[in-house]
Amino acid sequence: MTVSVTDQALFFAGALVMGAAVGLLYDAFRILRVRVRLPLLGGVLDLLFWLVLTGGWSLQIVGAGVLAAGLVAWGCQRVLGLPFWGGRKLWQRILRAVGYLPLLLREVWTANLQVILRILCPGRRRGAPRLSWVDPGLREPGTQFLLANSITLTPGTVTVALHRGRLCVYALDQEFAAGVKDSEFVRRLRRWEGKQDG
């Protein structure tokens, strides 16, 4: 059996078109959830979306869809404390997180290169590894948590503790330690909190 490159390209293009169509349908359902605030609308829209994706209308599929939609709606309200229709702040946070990801990837890439250079050229190291406390000036627990995890994901630094808004950071050398407080991470998160860079 042979598969041509043309067939694969057509299949891939079809998958992209179907993915875009499903994404548009999902966005339309999300707009309805935000604009029309009915308590059970979220579950009904989840069920409709389920039925469109599965492409069937059997009793088993509808039952599984009702169960899944009900669990998601219940979880959003009871476990996460979110309203059925989502909420504006939730979407702002999601968009911020999506916008934060390229910054995180860039910083991880840059730090990787710096660590590699320090391993290959030990003369580039500036001082010994150090443990230091940093006060980034963030007031929200969510942004403090995000900063702590971003520092840990970045090679050359590890957040050891987070206590009352202050971070205990283990850094590979003095340059890594000095760069934590004034990092692009801190500036971006301060902007999220409505603070000005200082």
Shape type:
extended
Strand content: 5-15%
Which structural class matches the secondary elements?
mainly alpha
Helix content: 55-70%
Spans of at least 5 consecutive residues whose pLDDT stays below 50 are: none
For the secondary structure, the number of strands is: 3
Number of helices: 7
Integer-rounded radius of gyration:
24 Å
Largest sheet descriptor: 3 strands, antiparallel
Description:
By secondary structure, this protein is mostly helical. Helices cover 65% and strands 9% of the residues. It has 7 helices and 3 strands, in the order ααααβαββαα. The chain has helices at 5-35, 41-54, 59-79, 88-120, 141-153, 174-181, 184-192, and strands at residues 130-134, 157-163, 166-171. Strands 1-3-2 form a 3-stranded antiparallel sheet, covered by helices on one side. Strand 2 (157-163) and strand 3 (166-171) form a beta hairpin. Helix 4 runs antiparallel to helix 7 (184-192) and helix 5 packs antiparallel against helix 7. The longest helix is centred in the middle third of the chain and has 33 residues, at 88-120. The protein is extended, with a radius of gyration of 24 Å. 18% of the residues are buried.
